[in-house]
Amino acid sequence: MRNANKLSIEVWDGWVRVFHWGLVLAVLVSFYTTKTSAVPFLFPIDVHAQAGYVVLGLLVFRWLWGVLGSVYARFSTFLYPPAPTIAYSKTLLKRQPNTYASHNPLGGWMVIIMLLSLSFQAVSGLFLSDDIFFQGPLYGLFGKGVGSQLSTLHQLNSHLLIILIGLHLLGLVVHRLLGEPLVTAMLVGTKRFRQQPIDARNELLNAATLRLRAIGALCIAAGVVLWLWF
Ligand code: HEM
Ligand code: HEM
Fold first, then answer.
1. Which band of pLDDT confidence, cut at 50, 70 and 90, is reported for residue 5?
2. Closest ligand to the CA of 25
3. What pLDDT is attached to residue 3?
4. Contact of 180 with 99, CB cutoff 8 Å
5. Which listed ligand is nearest to 56 at the C-alpha?
6. 43, 73, 169, 206 - which has most CB atoms within 10 Å?
7. Whose CA is nearest to atom 16 of ligand 1?
8. pLDDT tens digit string along 203-216?
């Protein structure tokens, strides 16, 4: 943390930023390739599944990083009980929200719901088939009945995801209008504050320890993707 006229705090480490923008790209490809005529792909469903494996790998990394990662990336930093979340929502309605280094209480719950919905989407896909060219790596594991229920849920949850992503983008616009440029922070990693944010932490983990944890989480995530892909 640096003290000048404004405080500048590194809130999103490089891993979170790569996770986020990689996720955006892979989710967009997953949606695009559900169209049978998804130019330039000859077999869009294969690309759909591969993009889904990448989503799953990124999520494995993020679930681990939420426990082991840098302080503002940790779930324990940005998940609040109901009372402070409601209190925060009221200040937001009055257009006077407190500023947070990590996700604010509402944003934190939104992030968890998005991560859960994305995880369900990617995992349920593993059990599906398009009944023509493609069978997921776990297709048939629980029999046809469960497979067809998962197919319906995969479709329904994809609608939920679109709503969540829409709300996510709307939230960013609202914060921009209130003077909080959150997108810049997700690009460059740092946020600037006029005063100490409410969740500011002094705790700094040793960089070598963090790197080691990141490499461990990355190996597990890459292992999952490679196992599914090949
Ligand atoms: C986050 C990742 C994913 C997203 C956003 C996603 C989204 C979708 C969407 C929107 C559909 C079309 C549903 C419909 O209207 O019928 C679909 C279908 C499908 N998805 Fe995914 N999916 C993801 C991951 C996966 C994965 C990992 C696999 C397989 C390994 C997979 C396999 C399939 C199959 C086989 C279908 C066609 C089902 C059918 O024809 O009934 N998906 N997916
Ligand atoms: C497919 C579309 C998207 C998905 C699935 C998505 C998902 C997510 C997730 C899961 C997080 C939590 C990050 C973490 O703690 O690891 C997040 C945060 C964030 N996303 Fe996205 N995102 C999408 C599109 C975008 C776009 C297009 C932008 C910018 C224009 C954006 C900007 C941000 C920002 C600024 C944050 C941090 C919010 C905060 O400070 O609380 N996202 N997003």
1. low
2. 2
3. 46
4. yes
5. 1
6. 73
7. 155
8. 777 999 999 999 99
Q: What is the pLDDT of residues 19-77, one digit of tens each?
A: 999 999 999 999 999 998 999 999 999 999 999 999 999 999 999 999 999 999 999 99
* CA proximity to 56, closest of 175, 181, 228: 228
Q: Taking the CB of residue 131, how many other CB atoms lie within 10 A of it? A: 8
- CB of 186 sitting under 6 A from ligand 2: yes
Ligand 2 atom nearest the C-alpha of 65 is 16
94 alpha carbon – ligand 2 mean position (Å) = 24
Cα(141) to centroid(ligand 2), Å: 33
> What was the pLDDT predicted at 202?
87
What is the value of pTM for the model shown? 0.96
Cα(20) to centroid(ligand 2), Å:
6
Q: Which pLDDT does position 6 carry in this prediction?
A: 81
